[in-house]
Design brief:
Layout: H1 5-33, H2 35-48, E1 51-62, E2 68-78, E3 86-94, H3 97-100, E4 109-118, H4 119-128, E5 146-156, E6 159-169, E7 178-186, E8 191-203, E9 206-218, E10 222-232, E11 238-248, E12 252-261, E13 270-276, E14 281-286, H5 288-298, E15 313-323, E16 326-335, E17 353-357
Parallel strand pairs: 4-5
Antiparallel strand pairs: 1-2, 2-3, 3-4, 5-6, 6-7, 7-8, 8-9, 9-10, 10-11, 11-12, 12-13, 13-14, 14-15, 15-16, 16-17
C-alpha cells in the first residue's frame, strides 16, 4: 500500500516533533538535575575528610524509575596515598523530587555496585586523621540517605577477606532507630550475616546508643544474639553492656556478655568477655587499644613479627576443643592476674600465662 505524499509529510513532521520533544526532555533533565553540582558536592565532602574522589566519566542523569544520577568508575583515595580505599564499578544517587524542582541539594539513597574496599588503605587513612579534641562537643555523624551496597568485597592488600557483600543501611539521625543488615561470604565460602539495630541519642556531651540488638550468624555453626546499650563521652571514656546467648553447633548454648569499662587514671579501657556453658567457661579481660597495637605489630611487614603473649588476663576452661584435625579435652588456660601465685614466695614474679589440660590431647584425627 502506497502512502500518499500528505501522509508521508505528516509522519515526517510527527517524527521531527517527537525527536524535538526527546531532545527537550534530555536538556530539561540535565538542567534540572545539574549533575555537576552533585559531583562537586561529593568531591567537596571527600576533600573535607582528606580524601580524593574521582569518576571515570561524568555523572549521567535519569528519571526512571525515579530521579537519579548514574556514576561510573568511582575511586576513593586518601590524599597523598597510592592504594585506593574504594574502587567501584558503578554508583547511583537517588534524588527526591523536591531537589529536581529547585529545592535544596539532597540525596535520598546512595547505591554502590561491586565496590572493592582495601582494609589496609582504610586503616592507614584513619590512623592519619587528626585526634579529636577532648573539649570538642560530640555529635552524631548524620547519614541523611539510605545506603545500599551490592556485590562488594573486602580485601587486605592482596588477601580476600569477604566477598559477595550486600549491605543495607537506613538513615542515621538522633532519636531515630538505625538499622543495618550485612550479608557476605568469607574467603572459604562460608555465609556470614550481621544485623544491627540501635537508637542514637545525645545526652549532654555524651553519645548514647539505646536498644541495641545485634544478631550474628556464621554458616550453620555459630549464632550470637546480644542486646544492651552503649555510651561514649569522647577519647577512651566509653562504656558498653551487651548480654545474650551464643549457640555453637556441637558445643551447645552459652550465656554471653560483653562489657566495656571506661579508662581512668589507674586502668586502661577494658573489654570483658564472658561465656558460660554447661562444661565450658570463658572469662577474659582485654585492653582493646593495647590489643590493637599488639595485633598491628604481629601483622607488620616492615620487620619480622615478634611472637609475644597478647595483652590481657583471664581464664578459659573448655571440656572439648577441635582445632583442625586435633581434638583436645580438658583444656585450661590462665593468663595475667588469673595465674595462681606460687606456693612459696621467693620474690620471683609469676609467669605471664600458663596452659594445662586435664587429660592428654588425643592424636590428630585422620583426614
Amino acid at each position: 500500500m502506497m502512502l500518499s505524499r500528505r501522509m508521508r509529510l505528516s509522519l515526517i513532521v510527527a517524527a521531527s516533533v517527537l525527536a524535538a520533544l526527546g531532545v527537550a526532555v534530555l536538556v530539561t533533565l540535565y538542567l534540572l538535575l545539574q549533575p555537576d553540582r552533585f559531583t562537586a558536592m561529593l568531591q567537596s565532602q571527600a576533600r573535607g575528610a582528606g580524601l580524593d574522589l574521582s569518576l571515570a566519566s561524568p555523572a549521567r542523569p535519569t528519571l526512571f524509575p525515579h530521579p537519579a544520577l548514574e556514576l561510573e568508575g568511582l575511586t576513593l583515595t586518601a590524599r597523598g596515598a597510592n592504594a585506593p580505599i574504594l574502587l567501584a564499578a558503578r554508583g547511583r544517587l537517588a534524588l527526591p523530587w523536591r531537589t529536581i524542582f529547585g529545592g535544596p541539594t539532597a540525596i535520598s539513597q546512595l547505591e554502590i555496585d561491586s565496590p572493592r574496599v582495601d582494609l589496609d588503605a582504610l586503616q592507614a587513612w584513619l590512623s592519619a586523621l587528626p585526634p579529636h579534641p577532648a573539649s570538642a562537643p560530640l555529635q552524631i555523624p548524620r547519614i541523611d540517605t539510605g545506603v545500599r551496597i551490592t556485590r562488594g568485597s573486602l580485601v587486605s592488600g592482596d588477601h580476600l577477606l569477604l566477598n559477595q557483600v550486600t549491605l543495607d543501611a537506613g538513615r542515621l539521625m538522633p532519636d531515630q532507630p538505625f538499622l543495618l543488615d550485612l550479608a557476605a561470604r568469607t574467603a572459604d565460602g562460608t555465609p556470614l550475616r550481621w544485623q544491627l539495630s540501635a537508637t542514637p541519642r545525645m545526652q549532654g556531651r555524651a553519645l548514647e546508643l539505646d536498644d541495641i540488638a545485634l544478631h550474628i550468624t556464621h554458616g550453620s555453626v555459630l549464632r550470637l544474639q546480644l542486646a544492651g546499650m552503649a555510651r561514649w563521652d569522647g577519647a577512651a571514656n566509653a562504656s558498653l553492656q551487651l548480654h545474650g546467648t551464643l549457640e555453637h553447633q556441637g558445643s551447645g548454648s552459652y550465656a554471653a556478655s560483653l562489657t566495656l569499662t571506661p579508662a581512668n587514671q589507674l586502668k586502661p579501657l577494658l573489654l570483658t568477655l564472658k561465656l558460660d556453658g554447661e562444661n565450658d567457661h570463658v572469662d577474659l579481660r582485654l585492653p582493646p587499644l593495647a590489643l590493637a597495637h599488639w595485633w598491628s605489630q604481629i601483622g607488620s611487614t616492615t620487620q619480622a613479627p615478634q611472637l609475644t603473649v597478647p595483652p590481657g588476663d583471664g581464664q578459659i576452661d573448655v571440656a572439648n576443643l577441635d582445632i583442625g584435625g586435633a581434638h583436645i579435652e580438658g583444656l585450661s588456660i590462665q593468663a595475667g592476674d588469673a595465674v595462681p601465685a606460687p606456693a612459696s614466695s621467693t620474690g620471683t614474679a609469676a609467669p605471664a600465662s600458663t596452659a594445662s589440660t586435664g587429660r592428654p590431647a588425643r592424636k590428630p584425627k585422620k583426614q
